[in-house]
Write a structure and sequence with these properties.
The protein is α+β, with helices and mostly antiparallel strands. 36% of the residues lie in helices and 9% in strands. A hairpin with a 2-residue loop joins strand 3 (268-273) and strand 4.
């Protein structure tokens, strides 16, 4: 068994153990067994340096297809089989066989399943070494395997759905002047309560200015900063803190700094009405958390 994914190797080993087969992992194509799972799909046996005619099982594959491929290879003329470490059972084994309890048999070499000394003189493998399970056992294991695969697929789909972020809200009608006054009143009250000199900018759903207010003592530079935050919030349909958190993680997220119009500083929030974006508010003049606090107070005034 050759694969660079340990989980795939473990899955194949466990499945083969249940059927009485032994899987010996290999680290290169030259050490591969007759049944090979390539490290990367789409490569033929000749591409990986295997001998012509070698059986190759490409990903993705099912457990049943894997077992069929193993049986086909072991049933081919000249194939050699290793005796099972314990008798084959007609139902699930009560104790899992240990893969590390014993080393490979003497005479084993890459590309074979067992030592050549176990091959009968007529060149045909002895099928009695590992007798096939009863039909009842095959049906029981097939049903349990199908149930296990179904549960795994269901859990995978559920986790993928849970991790998928919700779509951003859509745009609605532009915010009215009366609505903008309520937002501005809430932001101004929060600023005065904390004695913060802030600049508050309110844009409509089309990014156009509706209101701008500069409190006493607020820096002139905060005017453009507040407008940038409001534009970022309405243009990208998310608070500017989302960009701030992403950039703070570093790595590939630093590319967001080159995103035109995206402000990576807390203080810009979309304004919502009936589940749709009607505008945005941008606040500047204090620290980023203070700006965000005032912007949230203004947005709450619209509810």
């Amino acid at each position: 068994m050759v694969d660079d994914d340990e989980k795939v190797v473990q899955m194949v080993q466990e499945l083969a153990d249940l059927k009485g087969f032994e899987v010996l992992p290999a680290t290169s194509p030259e050490e591969a067994l007759r049944v090979l799972v390539p490290a990367h799909s789409g490569l033929s046996g000749e591409d990986r340096g295997l001998e012509p005619g070698a059986a190759v099982l490409a990903k993705p594959f099912t457990g049943l297809r894997l077992l069929e491929q193993i049986r086909e290879v072991l049933g081919a003329p000249g194939a050699v089989r290793t005796p099972p470490r314990e008798p084959a059972l007609s139902a699930w084994p009560s104790k899992r066989p240990s893969r590390s309890a014993e080393p490979p048999p003497r005479g084993w070499s890459p590309g074979t399943v067992g030592p050549a000394s176990q091959l009968p003189a007529n060149g045909t493998p002895d099928r009695s070494i590992n007798p096939a399970p009863t039909p009842e056992g095959r049906m029981t294991r097939a049903r349990l395997l199908s149930v296990a695969i179904g549960v795994a697929l269901t859990l995978t789909a559920g986790l993928a759905a849970a991790q998928a972020p919700p779509p951003p809200p859509t745009y609605g009608s532009p915010i009215t002047l009366d609505q903008a006054k309520k937002v501005m009143a809430g932001a101004e009250a929060e600023s005065k309560k904390n004695n913060w000199g802030m600049v508050m900018v309110i844009l409509d759903s089309g990014g156009q200015m509706v209101m701008m207010q500069r409190m006493d003592g607020a820096a002139l530079g905060s005017i453009e900063v507040a407008r940038d935050k409001a534009w970022s919030a309405v243009a990208f349909r998310r608070p500017t803190k989302a960009f701030e958190d992403a950039v703070s993680q570093g790595g590939a997220n630093l590319r967001l700094l080159r995103l035109t119009g995206a402000s990576p500083i807390e203080g810009g929030i979309p304004l919502m009405a009936d589940g749709k974006i009607v505008g945005s508010i941008g606040v500047s003049g204090g620290t980023a958390p203070q700006d965000g606090q005032v912007a949230k107070a203004g947005a709450d005034g619209l509810k």
